[in-house]
Amino acid sequence: MKAALLAAVVLMTPLSLFADPLPSWNQSASKERIITFVENVTDPNNAAYVTPDERIAVFDNDGTLWAEQPVYFQLTFALDRLAEMAKADPSILTTPTLEAASKGDLQAIAEGGHDALIEVLNASHAGTSVEDFQTSVADWLETARHPDTGLPYNQMTYQPMVELLRYLRDEGFRTYIVSGGGLHFMRVFAEDAYGIPPEQILGTYADTTYDSSNGTPVITKAPGIAFVDDKEGKPINIERTIGRRPILAAGNSDGDFAMLEWTTAGDGPRLGVLIHHTDAEREWAYDRESPIGKLVDGLDKGPDMGWVIVDMARDWDRIYTGGE
Fold it and tell me: For the chain, what are the domain ranges?
């Protein structure tokens, strides 16, 4: 009887009480604050207790859950795909921008600004069914390697953040991605990489069309961007799609500021987490001056708003899920 009672108690006790729920995090104030927050909101006897249906956590992807340097990985995919398409049909390179992009000329795209980027995305993403597009993403992830690390891109997810996602779900949270990255792009790998299913991914999405004239219904990606899931668009999309204000939000750049600001402005216990890229030896160090993942407002205002500023070099024992 005593053995059965002990076994029941063990099964009902959160894993975090027996083992470190965040083993790739160094012992630090950041780790302590995160664990304390989770323990408080999941303890029915704590005044900060939050019912499971309100335990929603949202995460940016680029620079928060996986790396984003030297360029966003989806742009690398777009350039690789454009080059592959151009080999099969050079006539698709109808402008100097596309000619340069097919050769991987990032400088030309940067000089062309937003219009050049949209031109590349339209050429590499539009005009194909969602299913075919996602197959091309999956094939790319199988073969492509990062130029600096040599790792597959989907192994450059952050081990400490994968642990945090798992820990939150073990404690009754629902975890969502809310990213400026493409919705259909992220849905290819996010479930395997993070344990987050496609229906819990919010991202930027293009216009699409529906056609069944050939007897088989097809949804096709069309040119143009229907919604940009960045900056103020993030809380707007969360409210529109999820319908509840999260109690935890994590990001790494000023593109995530509004999401963290809105999350932590709600009633009751709230936590904002910012990943500060400080590790030039194991990853990259960047913040205020970076054209990618620029972080100014978060550093200046986040501490006064009670946010956890995670110092990657200090707080993380390991960086990537692969290669270590």
Answer: 20-70+153-315, 73-143
295 token code pair: 């972080």
Mapped onto helix, strand or coil, the DSSP state of residue 89 is coil
Query: Angle at CA 113, nearest 5°, toward 110 and 118?
Result: 110
3-state DSSP of 207-219: EEEEECCCCCCEE
Characterize 80-111 residue by residue with b for buried, 16 or more Cβ atoms within 10 angstroms of its Cβ, and e for exposed.
bbbeebbeeeeeebeeebbebbbeeeeebbee
pTM: 0.93
With a cut of 70, which residues of the chain have pLDDT below it?
A: 1-18, 324
Nearest residue to 55 (alpha-carbon basis) of 167, 200, 174: 174
pLDDT at residue 29, as a whole number? 98
The highest-level CATH class for domain 20-70+153-315 is alpha beta
Q: What is the pLDDT of residue 323?
A: 81
Would you call 84 helix, strand, or coil by DSSP? helix
Instruction: Give the list of residues 6+ apart from residue 12 with CB closer than 8 angstroms, or none.
Output: none
pLDDT digits (tens, 9 = 90+) for 127-175: 999 999 999 999 999 999 999 999 999 999 999 999 999 999 999 999 9
Nearest residue to 34 via CA among 44, 22, 45, 47 = 22
Beta-bridge mates of residue 66? 62, 157
